[in-house]
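Student:
Attend to each token:
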Amino acid sequence: MMKTSKMDNNTEKMKVLIVDDEEDIRDGSARILSRINYDVLKASRGEEALEILEKEKMPIILLDLKMPGMDGLEVLSKIKEIDKSIIVIVITGYATVETAIQAMKQGAYDFIPKPFEPEQLRIVVNRAKEKLLLTWETEKLEEARKRTLLDLNTEKSRTRTIIEYIPNGIVVTNASGMVVLMNPAFVSAFAAGLEQKNDAVIDYYINDKKFCELVMAVSKGEILDTGDYEISMPNEKYYLSKGKSIISEENDCLGAVMIFVNVTAMKVLDRLKSEFVAKVSHELRSPLSTIHEQLSMVISDETEDEVEDQHILSRAKEKTEGLIALIGDLLDLSRIESGSMIHESRPVNIIELLKSIVDFLSTKAKNRGQTIDLSILNTEIPNINADPIALESIIGNLITNAIKYTPDNGNIFVISDFDGKNIVIKVSDTGFGIEEKYFSRVFEKFFRIKNEKTRFITGTGLGLPIVKNLVDSLKGSITVESKPSEGSTFTVTIPLI
């Protein structure tokens, strides 16, 4: 079975294959992913994709379900026959619960419905990349573990050096349960500030009676394996411990070896996941109920004319799109707040970035008869050393909000300037505007202004909080000026240093 390619260093690009019969989707997705350091290949049909896959090792594949010739589900099945470890993300304009479930059952990792925003695509693909990197790192650690065991059996002189440089905590006890060896990782986690005694048992370092009794039993050979045991520390850190008895060639128990893995980050992630699931479950209830009721009307009331049917389906689609946006924004915000969303900084040409974003979003504005006008007041704006994805998210979110909250045939203005120390970007619109009493609240999570003009606009109330978090991460500031029925202006100020 063909193995997916692995990146040997941080500079090597991860490959992505885009399989879609729509040229605009292929090219647009390729541009988005190429900008964030992916090596992108494209195929217009399933047969072409399989031919590429036989020649190229592709870790990630974006696959359309509806294509001429071989459909997406059949291509998915053949991909999994070639290599089950390939991550397949379904992209389709016919996204339904049934097709999504069927694709997931056949091994798809995730799916994203058309039309999708660039940020949605980046989030889904980056999540797939993170999964691959974690998988590869796990394999590397497993290989390192096997090599370590071999070294321990063949070269006693290297044992201490190996143990000291293992990132996980390690403790070795003798048959009496006394600690005879511990590495720096364990000392840092459990023995910092304590005198290291030669005759100390494990309870000198860890205040967990049940765990210490377990270690003593393993050290004496009363049980051979501790299994997984979670230790909660007073400083809100968590460790997962596992240990085994050390058995000699004569079948005598010489003691035990215990490994301690810091799982604090995983616990935090689990908590965030639980909060996320609870929130999503709550938000899913109303949209899905709406979809269910409206589709039931379409099915049961066959006397309604086509215009009415289209209106009902359109409302159902809006609810679904709002739900997808909420999930994406929640994931985005949680990553930003945890610090994992901010990537490595590099020089960014603000003028080129603005032109690219405005060019991309102009199509969306034109669909509503709107115009986006870009003004560069200072063409000598120097490059800023920052995360380009963060900058793109800030500007893109502000312009998208302006399009959303501006009536048809309105105008959006994007202005950039440089005052010698700060880059200033303004996004103005001729939209519905905001009352002054809401200025301090528009950056709060889930806060949305609902009135007769805006109540039919779908949204999550997370766009501006995401912008605020990203601006803060760049040591910048954001302000809002607005008058009801006249429009709004959001001003972002980012220092060069």
Q: What stands out?
A: Residues 118-154 form the longest helix (37 residues).
